[in-house]
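Consider the following assembly input.
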Amino acid sequence: MANNYNLITVSSPHFHNGSSGRRIMLDVIIALIPAAIAAVVIFGMKSLALMATCIIAAIAAESLFDVIVKKKNTVGDLSAIVTGLLLALNLGTEVALWEAAVGSVFAIVFVKCIFGGLGKNFANPAITGRVFMIIAFGSVTSFVNPKCVELVSSATPLANLAQGAMDQLPTVGQMLLGLHGGTIGETCIIALVLGWVYLSVRKVIKWYVPAAFIATVFVLFLVFTGSPVVAFYEILSGGLFLGAIFMATDYVSTPITVKGKVVFCICCGIITFIIRKFCALPEGVSFSILIMNILTPWVEKLTHNVPLDRRGK
Amino acid sequence: MMEKDIISKNPVMVLFLGACPALAATTTATASVGMAVSVCLILVLSSVLMSLMRKGVGDAIRLPLAIVISAGFASIAQMVMAAYLPKVYAMLGVYLAIVAVNAMVVTHQQNTASQEGFGASLKQAVITGIEFCALVIVMGIVREILGNGTCFGAKVPFFANHTIAVFGKAGGAFIVFAILLAVAGCFRKEAK
């Protein structure tokens, strides 16, 4: 009967643009390539070694976990590579390779695999791996300047800002090119923006979602300090662009609706501002994203779409 | 039978009783042995005393009595340790004192010591104590090796140069505890 027709009945939605979890992950990897290249150019071969270590450790951990729990190997969805690469870009050159591997294994096994694999993790594996490493290893929060530049200060721009040492800040050009101390992937703003544009064009993310995060931080610093220069430096320094573009837009650990994603990012911005301004830590992007990951179900509840006929009831 | 019980009937891993000392006092192997032995002794002694007194005690007074008895033995343990093992005493700090209200000890007194005879409750207390000891000492050794690179103060090759400080802190306690729970769960499944 049905075999006589080339018709298949499926439930809605009926249009499919061919995207898949694997394709999205591939897009994220492509979008991270400029930042990865910039990392190698600015910070040298150590960053290449960090990236390779993190990716290999992530793939090995996921494969091994799948073998132990007798599951089908899930490395093919590429999410382990994204996690490893993102984690490596979130580390400085002071981090030892074995420490990076431990962080990567933690991110994959304890944040993703134990909760049931991709799609079931409550928080972004890379950001949680980084937070774990901040607590576990002192080297994660110590940075050195890249060898290719001479800078007045050996502190990161965020540390300079926190101390109010405006005269020691790098120039805006150095900030945009990433020629200052920090994690290997966060400093080069231009490379990160290229990734942002690519992801927006490929419709993997909405361009205004990271913008909401960055704008919130800018506005709060502008209002609080009254100085556009300080606010501008604040958004260019630290992991704000890297976090906003690649981690606060993670599909799994952020709200489903666009409205929810924007609320998520605005809250991230507020928490980042509070941590940078009032806490002992100079940087708050990773903590803000982790905190909001945990609060995502709550944001989801507040922002879910109500069917038309139920509105106002 | 004993070996199986240590995993499948472990008070901490199955009922989460006494998880507080298991998490807090296991930063080093030495501290965990000190904690394990003192909890064991407090458990056995208070259980014996409770089972001897069980006939004259009404329901209304049983819980306060149980806490007074375990608090008494906890204080004795504290004083003995402060006198003879000041280093271990310093490591354990307040956690030794709060064994007085340890859920495992109090539950044991409520459910076993005050219901059953002297022999039965003594046997049960010893078994529970050994089960608790096994978990706490394993946690202490794992956490000291990973967090500090040492085992009972002696340097462990490889780990000494690759310490992960978080395992010496509260977060690491939960991670190690979770891994042990998962391993125990695995064994329980196979035993069925």
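DSSP finds 13 helices and no strands in chain A. Ask yourself how this observation constrains the way the partners meet.
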